[in-house]
């Protein structure tokens, strides 16, 4: 293991030499915990809180899968079951046909709805506004803005998948409706408390700490935005807590992991997110394809976040990789780091 740790250290140090990275943390463990490696850069440590961004989708997926296991919802449920018709009308109109009332929870969980993403695909100024200004945006406004954009395809259209945050924003609202509770309380009941997570939370008011995130060399503080995107990207945690969670997610501590065999569909996401595929609420990254010059083995399972966060499991080596590079200007950085780490240990 000593040689392996030297490889891991070399990869981490090479990554943190990137001029975009001002701080970073990495924690690696195997399933039973008898192998562990951690490293930090720029003062960041395993107990330093950071924004999970889209890794939050794993928490939302967990709640959906638990509620499904409890018989409180079905992935075949149409979202029209949970929303007023007026709210949904015109949300998904593709080639003149209305699909809004046909969208299912499965479409959202697997990103097969075809819905566009307001921030990534709105006007070129939309993303700039997020960077330049902190503002609250509720689910109703997100739905209204999505209606102004064109869907990419009809739901369940063959092998197509398109990553869009609105899918999980809606799932978060469904969780609240089904449980008659707030999302933060459901996370606490289904995830934080059972796993003993002490430093993981959804910020709900000004008193809750929200970490800064970097855009190139600028440190951004966006608490209103973070509190707005709870189900799709608002969770805050530490590398230590995140390791406990990702092990539980794939290890069966939160729900019956046999669900992954029953929900084994995974479709390739849009070209801008290559080589990422999407499964039942989590990313799947094949390591044996062109992106790695066919030199990798197996796949990475988990999620990354646009702010530089990552949480992946590599079954071939039985290693979990979690951490953060805290940089919003290049969302590919955490994925590349996880791929390099997995390739160095998968032989």
From TrEMBL:
Organism expressing this protein natively: Filibacter tadaridae
Gene: pbpE_1
UniProt xrefs under SUPFAM superfamilies: beta-lactamase/transpeptidase-like (SSF56601)
Keyword Hydrolase (UniProt): yes
Leader peptide range in chain numbering: none
Residue span(s) of domain Beta-lactamase-related: 32-323
The name this protein goes by in its record: Penicillin-binding protein 4
Keywords, sorted A to Z: Hydrolase
Pfam families, sorted: Beta-lactamase
